[in-house]
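[Solved] Which block belongs to which protein?

Original post:
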Amino acid sequence: MEENEINTLIAEHFTVWSDRNGLTRRAAIEKLYSQDSLVIAHYRFDGLPNIDAYIGDLLAERPDYRFAQRTPVESHHNIARVNWQFGPPADPARVTGQDIFTFEAGKIQSLLVFLDRKKNQ
């Protein structure tokens, strides 16, 4: 995939992960992720319905939080990484981390999520 295609998919990924509307989120997930996508965050889950359910639950628990990209995307050979933040408007970087993506056939095939440790941990 070309760098601009990867950048577009990742930008849309962050939009999806902040979308509280289940209908638009599910439609976007089907556009962005392969049918057999794998996500490894706190635990492993796969498939579009499970990805949607995880995002929906996460956003329901934190109603004023949003995801945002913190760094430019770095990519090569259909693999990319980017740093992100997640938090409320008053503290948008309350949670930070890095996502590592693999891509296949123009879609996200896998997503590995790493959370940053807090300075006091």
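(Second protein starts here: sequence line, then its structure tokens.)
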Amino acid sequence: MVDKSKIYYLYFIEKKNIVEIAKEQNVTKQAISKILKQFPEYHQEKERRKQENKIKHAQKTAEYIKQKRMAERANDEDYEAMKREQAQAAAALSRKGKLSDDALIKLCILHYDYNKEKERLVFNESAGKRPADLPRSVYVHKNVLKQFRA
């Protein structure tokens, strides 16, 4: 059988819990609990340990919440910095107003063929379907591409 004084020593002096004592003595938790209930100071010790565990749990929970909030703040700061950078890049790259037909033609000059008879640039359909904002043809005059003027 189990020695009561040994259980008393393990529980009250060494401050082991019931599960540890049961494993060490190779008996059930219920048997250890039954023996400990015979001691008058058991209920006081049990309440004291409950309060300690309650305080320890509250501290660990507070620490976990603190760590989680710090991680979220770091993520939020990174996200806000990325949004600011994206807004700055968008503002720098965006153009106010519309592109003129001349500017569009200059950007897409490879899709146009020059017609010498009419002095026009004509969109080449073999290059692909013409977007609605590109003109079908444009007169070549002094404002558009000097190399095509006669």
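Accepted answer:
You had them paired correctly. Confirming on the second one: The mean pLDDT is 87.
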